[in-house]
Design brief:
Elements: H1 3-8, H2 21-45, H3 51-73, H4 79-110, H5 121-146, H6 151-188, H7 192-195, H8 202-229, H9 240-259, E1 270-271, E2 274-277, H10 278-288
Antiparallel strand pairs: 1-2
Helix pairs in contact: 2-3, 2-9, 3-4, 4-5, 4-6, 4-8, 5-6, 6-8, 8-9
Length: about 290
């Protein structure tokens, strides 16, 4: 039996409310603004680790466009816009996480503290990004499977999505533990580069990653609970939770990275002495002054 059929019979419904066109429009504009700003920051500084962040912002925009279309169709919703908003809003945070993981790997290198990581430095980014990709594939695949239009696909797709969300939470938890352990070791035994706070503001960026990770974790927990409750659950029956615990948190995360951009520690900055990194130039002057 198709999803549309169940909807007509009063069983399954795409939405248990009329999606807010105004709410979707507001977040389309908000995510458009921060994504355009991120794009400008990325190209200006050549900070390519921000690519997933920009792509994630685009997915958020497309997702809320899908919700706006569904709002205009109420109550005769069609499958296309519903699936677009469901999948794109679901997987976008996995791309945000990829930027966090890559920035952490660069921060470890920039502070010359590879020996302080829980796992070998060469595996840090690979492990976390691999987990992130797995989470992305599971969530996207589950959402895509639901688009076949059958009730069985809805149930099976939801289970796959739940697994993907828990994979994301597991890797985020491991990341937080790893980052905190690295932080503690670096504070107890600072490297020469980490002491140069003016040239490598690692504390500021590490706290930014903590904040961004916490926002994504709260959102992922919300999404996991939402899918565990099922289509008739309380959360899916109240649109306000989507905007308060997903849209708003993800927008806040993107703005946080606008304010404290990864390029400060990731992108090499040309100095007046040529193509060498400004940090290396300052360290050389430091040693010469001893």
């Amino acid at each position: 039996m198709t999803l549309e059929g169940r909807q007509d019979e009063g069983g399954f419904k795409f939405y248990h409310y009329d999606p807010s066109i105004a709410g979707a429009a507001v977040f389309i504009l908000l995510f458009l603004g921060t994504t355009v700003f991120h794009s400008w920051q990325m190209f200006r500084t050549r900070c390519w680790v921000a690519i997933p962040l920009v792509v994630g912002g685009l997915l958020e925009i497309i997702g809320y466009v899908g919700r706006a279309i569904s709002g205009r169709q109420s109550p005769d919703w069609t499958l296309g816009p519903y699936i677009i908003q469901a999948i794109f809003l679901l997987v976008a945070p996995a791309l945000f996480a990829a930027t966090i993981y890559m920035e952490f790997g660069r921060l470890v290198t920039r502070t010359d503290a590879e020996s302080y990581t829980v796992v070998k430095h060469k595996w840090i980014t690979k492990i976390f990004v691999a987990g992130d990709v797995l989470s992305f594939v599971l969530q996207g695949g589950g959402g895509g499977y639901q688009s076949s239009g059958s009730l069985q696909a809805l149930d099976t797709g939801s289970r796959i999505i739940i697994v993907g969300l828990f994979v994301q939470l597991a890797f985020f938890g491991f990341f937080m533990v790893s980052a905190c352990a690295f932080h503690r070791r670096l504070v107890r035994q600072p490297t020469i580069r980490s002491r140069s706070g003016w040239s490598c503001p690692w504390r500021k960026h590490l706290y930014t990653m903590y904040g961004a990770s916490l926002l994504i974790m709260v959102r992922s927990i919300f999404r996991a609970v939402e899918y565990l409750q099922g289509n008739d659950g309380y959360i899916l029956s109240h649109e306000v939770y989507l905007y308060a615990l997903d849209a708003l948190l993800m927008f806040a995360m993107m703005v946080l990275f606008n304010a404290i951009h990864p390029s400060e520690i990731v992108a090499p900055v040309k100095s007046e002495e040529g193509s060498r990194d400004t940090l290396d130039v300052h360290l050389e002057r430091y040693y010469q002054g001893l």
